[in-house]
Write a structure and sequence with these properties.
Keywords: Oxidoreductase. The chain has helices at 12-23, 35-48, 64-77, 104-125, 157-178, 195-201, 208-220, 247-259, 264-269, 272-275, and strands at 3-6, 27-32, 55-58, 83-86, 131-135, 183-188, 231-233, 236-238. It is an alpha/beta fold. Helix 2 links the parallel strand 2 (27-32) and strand 3. The structure holds NADP nicotinamide-adenine-dinucleotide phosphate.
Length: 279
């Protein structure tokens, strides 16, 4: 039985992924920002797979302090994490800032996941087959201004979303170069009928069951055991935009992402080799 942490598993694709992984016999750490919504998902998972002790953790990814508290809680309470699925996401129609004064889309979709992942490496290392899965999107951007994304001069919701999804791929590819013995991949889940899609693009999209196919595959399949550093669509490797492959951009984003960490306590807990990245 694997222990699988899914950020944003209170709704949409994350919730469906949680249900399917529970159904296949695994234990889910349900992450959300709403205790009420998380409790409902836990009841669903408990009825699907009552054997596993599914658990709820609450943290608003709009806050670096809450990301730190979440990682501290997990380190205190868990022996290992086998799979980390960085799924939570938002689409913003207007410019808002996180608790740490970072544009909210980039803070929630990317930067909090960057921090959470680096803080959870010690727990992933305890697994025999550790996997990190990052949610990107087919609408990831064709370029990134790594200095502008945190406090954009001309905010555009669609641009901010696409930037955050390119950031997830750049992060995946750079992390893959630093890690050994933990795999990291990213994906586009399809165009799926969720509240995020409705917020950004209106109605439409396929079922959440369709959306869960690629994350479930990357979490469990033996075909991808040991496979790392790729972008997947419909369970297949796909080439992302050329910007995602630019090593210089990967390095610039990484270093800026470290610079944007507000708390020394977070930096103290990130292993040195992730702070002093060779460019
Ligand atoms: N839907 C698509 O067509 C599509 C396409 C490409 C990529 N994606 C990606 O798929 C992922 C899942 O999105 P979805 O479509 O399933 O959207 P969704 O149904 O809106 O679910 C998003 C999840 O993220 C959580 N979340 C949002 N803001 C949060 C915050 N500040 N702190 C903690 N959790 C937060 C939500 O919590 P609440 O339940 O409290 O809202 C929810 O659990 C996202 O990364 C999205 O970019 C989706």
């Amino acid at each position: 039985m694997k222990t699988i942490l899914i950020t944003g598993s209170t709704d949409g694709i994350g919730r469906e992924t949680a249900k399917e992984l529970a159904d296949k016999g695994h234990r889910i750490i349900i992450h959300g920002r709403s205790q009420t919504k998380a409790q409902k998902v836990k009841e669903e998972l408990d009825s699907i797979n009552p054997e596993a002790e599914h658990k709820i953790v609450i943290a608003d990814l709009n806050s670096q302090q809450q990301v730190l508290d979440l990682s501290n809680q997990l380190k205190d309470e868990e022996a290992k994490i086998d799979v980390l699925i960085n799924n939570a996401g938002i689409y913003q129609n207007s410019l808002e800032f996180s608790e740490d004064q970072i544009e909210k889309t980039i803070a929630v979709n990317y930067h909090s996941h960057f921090i959470l992942t680096l803080l959870l490496i010690p727990l992933l290392k305890e697994s025999a087959d550790p996997r990190i899965i990052n949610f990107s999107s087919m609408v990831h951007a064709h370029n990134l201004n790594v200095d502008n994304i945190w406090d954009p001069i001309n905010f555009n919701g669609s641009q901010a979303y696409s930037d955050s999804k390119l950031a997830m791929i750049l992060f995946t590819f750079k992390l893959d170069k630093i890690l050994d013995n933990i795999t990291v991949n990213c994906l586009h889940p399809g165009v799926i009928n969720t509240k995020l899609l409705r917020q950004g693009w209106g109605a439409g999209g396929s079922s959440v069951e369709k959306g869960a196919e690629t994350p479930v595959y990357l979490a469990l399949s033996d075909e991808v055991r040991g496979e790392s550093g790729s972008y997947y669509v419909k369970k297949r490797k796909k080439k992302p935009t050329s910007a995602a492959l630019r090593q210089e951009l990967q390095d610039q984003l990484w270093n800026k992402s470290i610079e944007m960490i507000k708390y020394q306590e977070i930096l103290n807990k990130i292993p040195d080799r992730f702070l002093e990245v060779q460019t």
